[in-house]
């Protein structure tokens, strides 16, 4: 979908804060599947937490991302996704070795430009929903860059700037497309 825009990149790079800023500006947004799953799992058995069973977590994230895309299909205007299907498929591929990125990524497209939040150590914070460290986040960032590039997406690295400047940057770049 050409109006479905993914913001991906490094954990702790300011993606969720940026999504909130875009929402305040009146744009439709979709919260990161991983955060929603972690909250649900922490209230339940915890069997599909990413640090317990990454494959189970990734499969749930894929299903949720597919539902998110379906639910957003009727929305006019930009829809900004805090991560998305390719991120979930890359997690499954990393955990299981299954070629999930290629299989899912070719059939379920987003806007051709994907915005990446680069590693930003000064912003990185671990929390109960994200207990991994910066080095793990940076390794994930590299996997995601590779996955999106392999699918032919144009990767646009966000500047290290304030959240409002980043939102301005995204909207300006999309206006050029």
Automatic annotation (TrEMBL):
<feature type="domain" description="NadR/Ttd14 AAA">
    <location>
        <begin position="5"/>
        <end position="166"/>
    </location>
</feature>
<dbReference type="InterPro" id="IPR038727">
    <property type="entry name" value="NadR/Ttd14_AAA_dom"/>
</dbReference>
<dbReference type="Pfam" id="PF13521">
    <property type="entry name" value="AAA_28"/>
</dbReference>
<dbReference type="InterPro" id="IPR027417">
    <property type="entry name" value="P-loop_NTPase"/>
</dbReference>
<protein>
    <recommendedName>
        <fullName>NadR/Ttd14 AAA domain-containing protein</fullName>
    </recommendedName>
</protein>
């Amino acid at each position: 979908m050409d109006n479905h825009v993914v913001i991906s990149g490094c954990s702790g790079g300011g993606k969720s804060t940026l999504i909130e800023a875009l929402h305040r500006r009146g744009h439709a947004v979709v919260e990161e599947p991983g955060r929603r799953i972690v909250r649900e799992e922490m209230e339940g058995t915890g069997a599909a937490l990413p640090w317990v069973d990454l494959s189970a977590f990734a499969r749930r994230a894929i299903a949720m991302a597919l539902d998110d895309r379906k639910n957003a299909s009727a929305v006019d205007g930009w829809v900004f996704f805090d991560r998305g299907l390719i991120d979930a498929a890359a997690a499954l591929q990393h955990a299981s070795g299954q070629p999930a990125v290629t299989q899912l990524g070719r059939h379920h497209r987003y806007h051709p430009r994907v915005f990446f939040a680069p590693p930003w150590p000064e912003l990185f914070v671990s929390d109960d929903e994200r207990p991994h460290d910066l080095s793990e986040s940076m390794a994930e960032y590299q996997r995601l860059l590779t996955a999106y590039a392999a699918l032919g997406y144009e990767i646009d690295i966000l500047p290290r700037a304030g959240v409002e400047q980043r939102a301005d940057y995204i909207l300006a770049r999309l206006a050029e497309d």
